[in-house]
Write a structure and sequence with these properties.
alpha/beta, 8 strands, 2,3-Dihydroxybiphenyl 1,2-Dioxygenase, domain 1, 3 helices, single chain
Length: about 140
Amino acid sequence: MNVYIEHANVTVKSIQESSRLLQAAFPDFQLRGEGVSGDKRWAHFGNEVIYLTLNEPLEGKADALAKNYAVSGLNHLAFVVDDIDSIDQRLQASGYKSDPVFQEESELRRRHYYEDSNGLEWEFVQYLTDDLSLRNHY
């Protein structure tokens, strides 16, 4: 069985801001659909295979979506990419900065983290080996 994540569902302060970072990183990501459901506006943003559902509270409804993430919650989403340098170039050209403290550069993988203006962290990882047993060497 071939398993992969089709989508993730994330609540953000601004769909436009998270979409801007994703569009910069992945030029093939587009708005696939959008609407309003209950107390939130939603958008599916991605390509034909993978997308993110981005939810934004309607004006005056932020409390309706509030959750307590003191114990659990989403820290970041990670994307495996073929060319992290091109991701970096596009994101930096769009005004995003990767904190060098949170970058990993090793012989097996390269990981860079970016934060959007919503405060969400996004990870991009390029594996430098095809040996799956070495990719997550700790």
